[in-house]
Each structure stands twice: as structure tokens, then as C-alpha cells.
């Protein structure tokens, strides 16, 4: 099926504008969000975190519903809210993804506690495993209820490291972790980071709209340890990419950056 950019643009302009002035969203931003939604729909990522503007679940839900009613999506996508942040989720892929993480412990976790001299890799400990299991159970339970917007209660997430959780839910191959009981700071200041970005193109409007599908970093000091794992993740993504026909020209970019402060 040919996906129309106009459907995505009109839906975004209609439902996602927020604030007192209801400022229109630039077409390029509408197309970027469209690429993210298509990627979730096509199984290239389990979820996207909505960060286009200040729109909340009450705007995002009708936006996604309008796309489904227009027939431009192949999967029923759902909205999940965690601590005020909204995720658009491919439920089937998410359950498969979380089950795979638990089964194979296929998760790179980087310890960046501020008192460390440098970041280090840690295995998936019991608390992270419990977090993933609780989240999988939540997705399973909510699937039966079919609410328009599912809200993860504070009784669950108040003991979770949300930085680690969102990295997992968004399908990143690596997530950062810090002991939030002790501090929300990290040891990444002036630490060389290898920033990896996955780019795709969406052929629309007689042109190709290029958009970043994934962006994540790994401390350079750990790159030799994680290189093989990242390559496996990329090959798995390429395999899924070849099974869809909406997005084109998957490419990977990599650069090393050093920043005075890194917010997680």
C-alpha cells in the first residue's frame, strides 16, 4: 500500500498542536514523526517516545487512531504513559522484544554512576530483570483490557531507573544505568562517546525525506567489548528492514563526541 504523507501531516496538524497559541507543527517535523510511527508499525522498533512538542496522551491517542482509521498503518498501535512520557507501541513486537531480553539476557547496560572513574559494563542484575518482567506483565495485562491509553502506575515505576527502562522499551542495543537512590548524576562528563545513528529515507512528495530512526551512544572505552554485539543488533535490524517496503536506504553513521555534560 502507498502511504500518503498528506495523511500524516494533516493528522499531526489537527491533533498534535497544543498550548494556548496552538502553533502549527512544521511539515518536516510532521514527516519525522510519520517516519517514527511507520517504523513502529512496520516492526523496525518496538516503540517511539513522543517528544515532538508538549502534546500529551489526549492529543497523541486521536492522532494515532486517525492514522489507523485512514488505513495507512498495518498494525494496531497503542499509547502507553509512564511518568508523563508517552510511548506509541507495537504491542506484539514489544512483547516479543521483552521476552527475548529476559530469555537471552540480551541487554548491554552501562554503569555510569558519578563516583566511577570511567563507565563499565554490567550484567543484567535481578532488579533490571524484575523491571523488564514487570513491564512485560503490564503489556500482557493491558492487552486484555484494550484501553485507549494505558498508564503505568507510580507503584511500579517509582523503583525503576527510567533511563534504563526507556532504552529497553525503545529497542536500543545499550542502555545507561546509575544508582538513582544515591544520585542522578553520571560520570560521562568529558568522556569520549561513540554516537551511533540509524538513518532511513521515506519517498514522499516527489522527494526523499531522510530521518534518524535510532540514536544511541556507548563510551569509547567500552567499544571493543560491545562492537560485536552492536554489529549483531544492526544485522538483525537490516533483516527486519528488508521485510518492509515503505522506508528505504537504511544507513548507519558513527562519530565520537566529547561533551562537558551529558544529560540522561
Explain what this protein looks like in three dimensions:
The chain has helices spanning 5-15, 27-41, 57-69, 91-104, 126-145, 154-157, 162-169, 223-241; strands spanning 47-49, 78-82, 85-89, 108-111, 120-122, 149-152, 174-177, 193-204, 207-219, 248-257. With 264 residues, it is an alpha+beta fold. The protein folds into 3 domains: 5-90, no CATH class; 92-177, no CATH class; 193-254, no CATH class. α1 (5-15) runs antiparallel to α3 and α4 runs antiparallel to α5. The radius of gyration is 19 Å and the shape is globular. The mean pLDDT is 90.
How many distinct folded domains?
3
Classification by helices and strands: alpha+beta
Q: How many extended strands?
A: 10
Fraction in beta strands: 15-25%
CA distance, first residue to last residue: 38 Å
**Average pLDDT over all residues:** 90
Low-confidence stretches are none
Radius of gyration: 19 Å
Strand order across the largest sheet: 1-3-2-6
Percent of residues in helices comes to 25-40%
Give the helix tally. 8
Give the overall shape, derived from the CA principal axes.
globular
Note the main sheet: 4 strands, mixed
Provide the succession of SSEs.
Answer: HHEHEEHEEHEHHEEEHE
Amino acid at each position: 500500500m502507498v502511504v500518503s504523507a498528506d495523511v500524516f501531516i494533516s493528522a499531526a496538524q489537527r491533533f498534535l498542536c497544543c498550548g494556548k497559541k496552538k502553533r502549527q507543527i512544521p511539515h518536516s517535523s510532521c514527516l519525522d514523526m510519520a517516519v517514527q510511527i511507520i517504523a513502529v508499525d512496520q516492526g523496525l522498533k518496538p516503540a517511539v517516545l513522543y517528544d515532538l512538542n508538549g502534546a500529551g496522551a489526549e492529543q497523541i491517542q486521536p492522532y494515532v487512531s486517525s492514522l489507523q482509521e485512514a488505513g495507512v498503518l498495518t498494525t494496531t498501535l497503542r499509547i502507553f504513559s509512564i511518568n508523563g512520557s508517552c510511548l506509541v507501541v507495537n504491542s506484539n513486537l514489544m512483547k516479543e522484544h521483552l521476552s527475548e531480553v529476559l530469555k537471552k539476557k540480551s541487554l548491554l547496560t552501562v554503569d555510569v554512576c558519578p563516583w566511577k572513574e570511567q563507565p563499565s559494563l554490567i550484567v543484567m542484575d535481578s532488579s533490571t530483570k524484575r523491571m523488564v518482567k514487570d513491564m512485560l506483565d503490564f503489556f500482557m495485562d493491558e492487552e486484555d483490557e484494550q484501553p485507549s491509553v494505558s498508564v503505568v502506575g507510580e507503584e511500579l515505576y517509582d523503583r525503576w531507573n527510567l533511563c534504563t527502562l526507556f532504552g529497553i522499551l525503545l529497542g536500543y542495543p545499550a542502555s545507561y544505568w546509575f544508582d538513582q537512590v544515591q544520585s542522578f548524576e553520571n560520570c560521562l562528563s568529558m568522556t569520549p562517546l561513540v554516537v551511533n545513528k540509524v538513518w532511513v529515507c521515506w519517498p514522499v512528495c516527489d522527494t526523499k525525506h531522510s530521518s534518524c530512526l535510532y540514536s544511541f551512544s556507548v563510551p569509547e572505552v567500552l567499544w571493543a567489548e560491545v562492537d560485536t554485539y552492536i554489529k549483531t543488533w544492526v544485522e538483525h535490524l537490516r533483516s527486519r528492514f528488508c521485510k518492509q517496503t515503505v522506508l528505504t536506504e537504511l544507513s548507519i553513521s558513527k562519530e565520537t563526541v566529547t561533551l562537558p555534560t551529558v544529560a540522561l
